[in-house]
Design goal:
Layout (H helix, E strand, L loop, with lengths): L1 H13 L6 H10 L3 H14 L4 H13 L3 H14 L4 H13 L3 H9 L7 H16 L9 H5 L15 H5 L12 E5 L5 E5 L9 H7 L3 H12 L7 E4 L3 E8 L3 E8 L4 H22 L1
Antiparallel strand pairs: 1-2, 1-5, 3-4, 4-5
Helix pairs in contact: 1-2, 2-3, 2-4, 3-4, 4-5, 5-6, 6-7, 6-8, 7-8
């Protein structure tokens, strides 16, 4: 998955107007990188607002994030652009099912095309739910019967992101409340961690946006100076000590601590944070 994301990212960088943003956004979604996937999809739709498949990808991202209202809006848009869009009908059928509107789900799925058997399977589950609600029975040996049991949901759930866990990714390696760590992608989006300022406000997104492109600038500077690849950068400011290092997939790990924190400890925290970031990215990618 990581190789696929890297390849698609490179393709999009070479041609920002291409439709490769769709498979890239979907690959990021499947890797659990929902915030990045959302940004990629929205940027692509700015250029290609009338592509039904692009709205389908954005709908899937919203659904994985748990925002079924926005997912429904995007699938409705996909259907307006392409009334035969089977995946949009399947998605809307899923949402109707989640809302308990089995009749609407059946109507949508009955009108959907089915290229891989997914619609037929979903329709079978919906009709099983309708039969169960009306007091009917489903044959014990049928595939739908097993899916009616309490331990197995009738329609597969969209995976839900655990954003709180990502925010707490670096907590085990930080020693004090005045220490923070962030994992930032190349576009300046927060992937994990958090940064709280002196007032107690979470300024993670602001900090991440300011750090967009830092890795690229550092690489260019090292190349011009003939010093090889950069491995870390440490800044001692009036109010804090900040250290950063490149991480996989073009991301950046940033650690900040109070000005009184020994530089050696900050470097140690950076190494620990990088290790956790690598492990986490390997799992989600």
């Amino acid at each position: 998955m990581a190789d696929e994301i890297r390849r698609l990212s490179d393709d999009l960088a070479r041609d920002p107007s291409s439709l490769v943003f769709m498979p890239l956004a979907d690959a990021l979604r499947r890797a659990g990188q929902f915030d990045v996937a959302l940004r990629v999809a929205l940027r692509g739709l700015d250029r290609h607002p009338y592509v039904a498949d692009a709205h389908d990808v954005l709908a899937r991202i919203h659904a994985d994030r748990g925002d079924l209202e926005r997912a429904a809006d995007e699938w409705e848009m996909a259907l307006r652009l392409d009334p035969s869009h089977g995946q949009a009908r399947l998605g809307l059928g899923f949402i109707d099912y989640r809302r308990g509107d089995f009749e609407s789900a059946e109507r949508r799925l009955s009108a959907a095309t089915d290229s891989d058997g997914g619609v037929a399977t979903a329709l079978s589950h919906v009709r099983s739910a309708l039969a169960a609600r009306s007091g009917g029975s489903v044959p014990a040996g049928s595939p739908s019967h097993a899916l009616l049991q309490p331990t197995s949901p009738p329609i597969p759930e969209f995976p839900a992101p655990d954003l709180s866990r990502a925010r707490q990714l670096f907590s085990p390696v930080l020693d004090d409340t005045d220490q923070t760590a962030l994992l930032v992608d190349g576009d300046g989006l927060v992937l994990a961690g958090s940064h709280v300022d002196a007032t107690g406000s979470d300024v993670s997104e602001i900090v991440a946006a300011e750090l967009a492109g830092v890795s690229g600038e550092a690489e260019r500077a090292m190349r011009h100076l003939g010093l090889g690849a950069w491995t870390s950068l440490l800044v001692e400011a009036d109010g804090a000590v900040i250290a950063m290092t490149p991480a996989p997939l073009g991301s950046l790990v940033v650690v900040a601590a109070s000005r009184e924190t020994p530089v050696g400890l900050v470097r140690l925290l950076l190494d620990r944070a990088l290790t956790r970031a690598r492990d986490w990215l390997a799992r989600v990618a």
